[in-house]
Target: Phage tail protein
Amino acid sequence: MPYLTAPADTLRTAGGEQLGFGVPGYAHPLLAPAEWAELARPGTPLHWAVLNIAGGPGTRPDPHCLAAAGRLRNARERALHGEEPDDSVRACGGRLLGHLDLAHGERPFDELIADARSFVDWYRVGGFYLARCPTERAELPAVRRLTATLHALLAESDSADDGGRLVLGHGTHPHPGYAEAADQLVTFQGPWTDYRWSQVAEWTADYPPTRFAHFVHGVPRTHLDEAMRVARWQGAGTIFFTDRGGRSTDGRSGQTDPFAALPRYWDEIVSRIGPGISE
Model:
């Protein structure tokens, strides 16, 4: 396997650093109540979860999303400031991120900032997930301008502690300069059949695992251990693995968004990672 042939010094998370979940966006809380409830369950090692109403914040506050956002925010408060911080089963410390679709650099700057302000004003998000983020060097200045403005917006609000978190949803390895434009990069998003043979870009070795996230669908239960080994070898600190989204026996694709629901082995993967708290 290619990832097993890398030099020993590329094994950057060999058990010493804890993996955690990044949830790229469950279905609407009204349609996926179990999924949203799991995010606030004590002991869930959640780093962050994305709120996406209609490709963004929607046109008005949604009461179901307001309730889900409040539960997750309260769980983070309990985790960070709870009365029993040494309890081995703690509430999750995950942030709620607003979904901003960059459309590979095609969306206007002012439109994105307007969506970001709505997320902060209505749902008090603790950061943003920049979906379909460009990957080329030519678009890097525009992305840097956007992330600098978003950081300033979060700093002005009372919803984001530690300056908030920005995650760039590339889905593949971008130009190395993007690593300095945000807090975390999604450098893989795709099927297990590609992930198990994938290779990490050499420049990522200059950064800690907290800077990278991997989203993989179609991971069989029997390959969970292998998938987590790949993530650790490749230096990813945040993951989301699911068995959904594979091919049916007649060759047709599965559901449109494999990350919209819980994997069928959710309890098992939570127990393998262990209880934790956000960084």
Notes: The chain has a mean pLDDT of 86. The helical segments are 33-39, 63-81, 109-123, 140-156, 192-195, 224-233, 266-273. The radius of gyration is 18 Å. The longest helix spans residues 63-81.
